[in-house]
């Protein structure tokens, strides 16, 4: 789906176009939800996410037939991540509808009035509370005692983080005079100051810094080891009610007062307003002072004050009718784009970066902004020397929104995206259907080298004991290891005199290098780290071509896409044209050929020997995979099972021996349970097949 297509007004879409766009958006939104809620690692800004959601909602409004029970509009967040036990919320944890313009807020109040049948002059009191950019949690108290704490998860089921929440000093453990059951909801967050201190400590410990306070809060709370949570400075504001065994107040405002009485922190900036104009004025004032706050807020939440009205208003799909979030506008500034440079990521993606005349946006000094990709530059027609508008939405990397055409200098030339990698000079290729251009230098590209080398020595590849990721980093920095072959050229005397390397560890490494210089063909191919060539694909290739020489010769021959060799390659079940392109692209690159030549001289790569399926515990068994597997693709899982003599079926029946249940598994897992079949999770399966 191109971005241009998304600019068509929804009304102009044919039902077919709408269905196609709905599907693409649903997938995209689900991926973003997972990145945000399960991995604490968003890949787009809040503003971009909101834009996707608005478009999605507009399509569903215009084409209601498209709405399905598993549409993202019916879900809140994402399913809980594996690892914590699951908690079903006594009352669902809802999300909030969004307002972006004043008119949206005016319409919200008008809707409330219409719904309740209120007269024009009947006041509707609204509580305005800053929207905290954190992680929502539910705190359950029984007989005044804190008994259960959970994350929101998908709104219905969250993760049990009770023990971790107990480490937050701001959460009272005992409530005096509380109802038998009380569930309080709020937002766990990290102050900006605490976030900065934590990141300094992370950097010192050579740990990955967090992208923003929200991720830091989420990552800190969802720790298996509660001692780590305890060591992190987490704060909380509470703001709503879940389950309660008796009424607590008549208004939300009084409810907040009761919460404070029990010792919960509530947001001190909250105010009670009598009309929508006052709400909007308060919003504008908060936008102004937002940067001065020590915690991040991303909007204002308006809530109907009367709880009996809240009750009557209820909720529709994932959001209550009695509340709405008025999002803050992205902060923008104008500056000059000095130069566009290209950054090469660890996986070889070329990302254009705008180098700017430094400018302050929302209190932060910005001198670089992302231009995303080739298409984005072309679409926005941003040129070097242009005056540009940049924006900081939430806390993600600033972006270039547009060029100010009136200020464009004469002779400014359209930007030409490079087709070679600026780091290593290898071809940078863009595959069909992909937005990213990628360097094909792989093993020799300095930007990718370290990650590739780490992969090369990793457990499923060369498995070189005594040479860990840290060593690779140090040796690469020093220029001692540049290519995989350099690893096998390490000498005892290179090591023994180094800090942290005793005689013994140097001897051990030399010994393991000598042991590992004989390797099976499939491991060898896997170790090369070719895109899309995982263990199973490497095994398929090894099986097909038998020897390193045979494989290389056939890859050379297959460079001619009309050849029999190309046919043979793409005929391998499990290797499609896209994988073939990555593979052949790698083998055609001169730098990679040199690496292969060097390795061939230094190592003994054993010809493929088919495993004896009879010795495998899954030989002759029927296996069904369902849900998403985390450590390998479905194709890899299937290929591996088959190579061990198992039969992989697409549907569950009484004859199924094993059902491997991944994340988000649906009806097949359910049916397997009903039939009493042997269900394994991914880890159990991997253990079984060794
Ligand atoms: S009220 C029924 N108040 O924003 C909904 N939510 O985008 C109750 N949030 O799920 C939520 N600050 O996690 C409410 N002052 C506040 C909030 C707030 C942050 C979060 C909450 C909610 C999300 C919706």
Helix and strand layout, with pairings?
Blueprint: H1 3-6, H2 15-37, H3 46-62, E1 86-88, E2 98-99, H4 102-116, E3 126-132, E4 135-142, E5 145-151, E6 157-159, H5 162-165, E7 181-189, H6 192-204, H7 213-221, H8 226-231, E8 235-244, H9 252-261, E9 271-273, H10 276-289, E10 297-304, H11 307-313, E11 315-316, E12 319-320, E13 323-327, E14 331-344, E15 349-361, E16 364-370, H12 374-380, E17 387-392, E18 399-403, E19 428-430, E20 437-439, H13 446-457, H14 469-477, H15 484-488, H16 492-496, H17 503-516, E21 518-520, H18 521-527, H19 535-545, H20 548-557, H21 564-571, H22 577-588, H23 590-602, E22 604-606, E23 622-626, H24 634-643, E24 647-649, E25 658-661, H25 667-674, E26 678-681, H26 682-689
Parallel strand pairs: 2-13, 21-22, 23-24, 23-25, 25-26
Antiparallel strand pairs: 1-6, 3-9, 3-10, 4-5, 4-7, 7-8, 10-13, 11-12, 14-15, 14-17, 15-16, 15-20, 17-18, 19-20
Helix pairs in contact: 2-3, 13-14, 18-19, 19-20, 19-24
Bound molecules: 2-(butylsulfanyl)adenosine.
2-(butylsulfanyl)adenosine binds at residues 94-96, 129, 131-132, 136, 187, 239-240, 301, 320, 323, 325.
What does this structure look like?
About 40% of the residues lie in helices and about 20% in strands. It has about 700 residues and is of the alpha+beta class. The strands form seven sheets. Strands 14, 15, 16, 17, 18, 19 and 20 form a seven-stranded antiparallel sheet that branches. α18 (about 520-525) packs across α19 (about 535-545). The protein folds into four domains: about 85-325, 2-Layer Sandwich (D-amino Acid Aminotransferase, Chain A, domain 1), CATH 3.30.470; about 330-430, OB fold (Dihydrolipoamide Acetyltransferase, E2P) (Beta Barrel); about 520-605, 5' to 3' exonuclease, C-terminal subdomain (DNA polymerase, domain 1); about 620-690, BRCT domain (Rossmann fold). The chain is globular. Residues about 1-5 and about 75-80 have low confidence and may be disordered. The chain is built from 26 helices and 26 strands. The chain binds 2-(butylsulfanyl)adenosine.
């Amino acid at each position: 789906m191109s971005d241009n297509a998304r600019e068509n007004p929804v009304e102009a879409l044919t039902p077919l176009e709408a269905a196609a766009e709905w599907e693409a958006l649903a997938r995209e939104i689900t991926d973003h939800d997972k990145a945000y809620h399960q991995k604490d690692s968003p890949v787009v800004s809040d503003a971009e996410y909101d834009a996707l959601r608005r478009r999605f909602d507009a399509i569903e409004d215009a084409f209601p037939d498209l709405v399905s029970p598993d549409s993202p509009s019916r879900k809140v967040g994402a399913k809980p991540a594996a690892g914590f036990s699951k908690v079903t919320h006594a009352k669902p944890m809802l999300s909030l509808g969004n307002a972006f313009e004043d008119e949206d807020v005016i319409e919200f109040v008008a809707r409330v009035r219409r719904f309740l049948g209120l007269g024009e002059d009947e006041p509707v009191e609204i509580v305005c509370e800053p929207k905290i950019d954190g992680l929502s949690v539910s705190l359950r108290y029984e007989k005044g005692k804190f008994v259960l704490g959970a994350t929101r998860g998908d709104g219905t089921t969250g993760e049990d983080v009770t023990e971790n929440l107990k480490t937050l000093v701001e959460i009272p453990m005992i409530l005096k005079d509380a109802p038998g059951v009380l569930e309080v909801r709020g937002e766990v967050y990290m102050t900006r100051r605490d976030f900065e201190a934590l990141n300094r400590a992370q950097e010192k410990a050579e740990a990955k810094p967090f992208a923003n306070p929200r991720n830091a809060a989420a990552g800190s709370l969802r720790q298996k080891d509660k001692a780590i949570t305890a060591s992190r400075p987490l704060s909380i504001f509470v703001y709503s009610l879940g389950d309660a065994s008796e009424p607590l107040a008549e208004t939300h405002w009084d409810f907040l007062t009761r919460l404070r009485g029990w010792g919960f922190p509530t947001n001190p900036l909250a105010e009670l307003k009598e009309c929508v104009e006052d709400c909007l004025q308060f919003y504008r004032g908060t936008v102004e002072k937002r940067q001065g706050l020590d915690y991040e807020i991303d909007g204002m939440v308006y809530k109907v004050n009367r709880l009996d009205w809240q009750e009557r208003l209820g909720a529709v799909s994932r959001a209550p009718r009695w509340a709405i979030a008025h999002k803050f506008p992205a902060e923008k500034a104008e500056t000059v784009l000095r130069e566009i440079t290209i950054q090469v990521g660890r996986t070889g993606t070329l990302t254009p970066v705008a180098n700017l005349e430094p400018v302050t946006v929302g209190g932060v000094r910005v001198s670089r902004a992302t231009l995303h990709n080739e298409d984005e530059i072309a679409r926005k027609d941003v040129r070097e020397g242009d005056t540009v508008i940049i924006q900081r939405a939430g806390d993600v990397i600033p972006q270039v929104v547009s060029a100010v055409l009136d200020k464009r200098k004469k002779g400014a030339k359209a930007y030409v995206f490079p087709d070679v990698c600026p780091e290593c000079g290898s071809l940078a290729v863009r595959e069909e259907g992909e937005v990213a251009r990628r360097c094909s230098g792989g093993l020799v590209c300095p930007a990718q080298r370290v990650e590739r080398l780490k992969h090369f020595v990793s457990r499923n590849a060369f498995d070189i004991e005594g040479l860990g990721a840290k060593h690779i980093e140090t040796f690469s920095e020093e220029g001692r290891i540049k290519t995989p072959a350099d690893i096998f050229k390490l000498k005892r005397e290179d090591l023994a005199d180094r800090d942290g390397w005793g005689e013994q560890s140097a001897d051990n490494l030399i010994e393991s290098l000598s042991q590992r210089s004989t390797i099976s063909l499939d491991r060898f191919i896997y170790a090369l780290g070719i895109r899309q060539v995982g263990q199973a694909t490497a095994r398929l290739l090894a099986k097909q071509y038998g020897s390193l020489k045979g494989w290389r010769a056939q890859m050379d021959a297959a460079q001619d896409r009309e050849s029999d060799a190309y046919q043979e390659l793409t005929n391998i079940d499990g290797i499609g044209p896209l994988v073939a392109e990555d593979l052949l692209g790698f083998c055609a690159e001169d730098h990679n050929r040199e690496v292969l030549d060097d390795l061939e001289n230094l190592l003994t790569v054993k010809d493929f020997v088919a495993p004896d399926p009879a010795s495998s515990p899954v030989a002759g068994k029927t296996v069904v995979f369902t849900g998403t597997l985390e450590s390998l693709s479905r194709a890899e899982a299937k290929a591996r099972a088959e190579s061990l003599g198992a039969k992989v079926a697409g549907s569950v029946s009484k004859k199924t021996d094993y059902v491997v249940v991944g994340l988000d598994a649906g009806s097949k897992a359910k049916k397997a349970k009903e039939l009493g079949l042997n269900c394994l999770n991914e880890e159990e399966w991997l253990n079984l097949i060794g």
